[in-house]
Write the structure tokens for this entry.
Amino acid sequence: DWIMGDYIEEAVAKIREQVGDEEVILGLSGGVDSSVAAALIHRAIGDQLTCVFVDHGLLRLNEGDMVMDMFAGKLHAKVIRVDASDLFLGQLAGVTDPEKKRKIIGGLFVDVFKAEAAKLKASGQGHKGASFLAQGTIYPDVVESGGTKTKKATTIKSHHNVGGLPEQLGLKLLEPLRELFKDEVRELGVALGLPHDMVYRHPFPGPGLGVRILGEVKKEYADLLRRADDIFIQELRATIDPATNKSWYDLTSQAFTVFLPVKSVGVMGDGRTYDYVVALRAVQTSDFMTADWAELPYSMLKRVSGRIINEVRGINRVTYDVSSKPPATIEWE
Ligand code: XMP
């Protein structure tokens, strides 16, 4: 609409003024905030923006290709995809503690990003090297780090944190979404031409599947989990609640599949199976501080479990998590 159009023009003018003829680097994660920031900055300064997309191997099915297709393919933005999955999985081998896993993933993320920034500077292909680091910081992040939100006083889980990165890289910060709330960021994303489904996606944690595979992370587990999770999300999108005429994806705040590295016995055809278990998790919440498990239709749960067990060889049992937060958290780790 015209209001958003005016907003974009203003924001674009501001970015151009701030950046001048300098270069900007941005870490693209596939999440809503960094995607919208990238689309907006690209609208403003085109090829002066370079996006670095670190694929840690713990993304959802086809997510990396989708991000590349959108930003490099459709928006024609400069995007460097770094396939760092071997590095991440290597460092995670043998590590079972959730907080240790988070620290390893967060730390490697920063290392890989820094290395790319340095390479970019050295490459000289039309580059003076970036002088700005762009981030998709939104207003609630600003408020949170200002300590205004008292609820966050005790950190139960250390979140993906890139604080201090601009100083370490010697870069100035560019944060064009700093004044926006999440719903405004989404509207902006749609107005900039990002697909509705990308912009209205459920939140996805920075450590990705690393905290949705309980205990040690292995490629085999991640591959199974990706396929099971994709089936769950497909069915959530496809199942419409007749009372509201909305999909169960839109009726839930976050929904995903968790990999449980235990084996249970099953039967398939004439044979006995001894395979892994997954848990489905779906919650409704307004602030993610408290959450109710979602009362998904049994018919849908039945379809999801049937499809996962039939289509994903290696998983023979599906459970549904009926725990609310508190005392359970939304993620299992
Ligand atoms: P919990 O599990 O604490 O999750 O109830 C609340 C919200 O935070 C997300 N979450 C994370 N996000 N890095 C992130 O970027 C993390 O390490 C992390 N841990 C949890 C979770 O997905 C939910 O939306």
